[in-house]
Amino acid sequence: MAAPVRAFFLAVLLVLATAAGADDAAAWAALRSGGHVALVRHASTEPGLGDPKGYRLDDCATQRNLSAAGREESRRIGERFRREGVVVEKVFTSPWCRCRDTAKEAFGKAEDWEALSSFFDAPHQEPDLTERVKNRIGTYSTRRPAGTVVMVTHNVNIAALTKLSVGTGEVVVVRPDGCCGLKVVGRIRIP
Predict the structure, then answer these.
(1) Which CATH class is domain 3-188?
(2) Alpha-carbon gap, residue 114 to 154, rounded angstroms
(3) Strand 37-41's sheet: what is its strand order?
(4) pLDDT tens per residue across span 2-42
(5) What are the backbone dihedrals phi and psi of residue 75, each rounded to the nearest 5 degrees, phi first?
(6) What is the value of pTM for the model shown?
């Protein structure tokens, strides 16, 4: 590769890294200030897509669950929140075991909330579930939490709310925008 081409690609990578760092910094600052919501996709799972046929929410053995790496990722998420000085006021989670386990490993607590349930196998449920989550986030514009509210859920849910596809363990920081909307503040990928 010619030196000018290599220099161009290095410059592009530097710009992208700088933009990602700025996005990351803005997201952490928002979380530290309180009144924001951290949408967290569950950490890494055992291989597969969706859940096995016949899975049941009341039996983790029938679901696709966190891998050992996913449990470690979850702990790193919690450690990073603490190191960044983020006060976590409340943690809601999808009732799927991989989400519940991510939340408990990261934050030590979680409250199941059916509105964060995956609609991967039931796309007809998307409008109702997404609207319920938007409405809850919207209430924080008038009743601003002192700390950060964490919602651990699935990629399909985060994509429906934000139009962003996220990796496992990735965090999208949003703030309320009016009664029933939200605005993306930034994304955080915790290595």
Answers:
(1) alpha beta
(2) 12
(3) 111-112, 88-93, 148-153, 37-41, 171-176, 182-188
(4) 554 343 333 333 333 333 444 699 999 999 999 999 999 99
(5) -60, -40
(6) 0.87
Per-domain residue ranges of the chain = 3-188
Per-residue 3-state assignment (H helix, E strand, C coil) for the chain: CCHHHHHHHHHHHHHHHHHHHHHHHHHHHHHHHCCCEEEEECCCECCCCCCCCCCECCEHHHCCCECHHHHHHHHHHHHHHHHCCCCEEEEEECCCHHHHHHHHHHHCCCEECHHHCCCCCCHHHHHHHHHHHHHHHHHCCCCCCCCEEEEEECHHHHHHHHCCCCCCCCEEEEEECCCCCEEEEEEECCC
Task: Specify the amino acid at residue 159.
Answer: A
Which residue bears the tokens 């997201």?
27
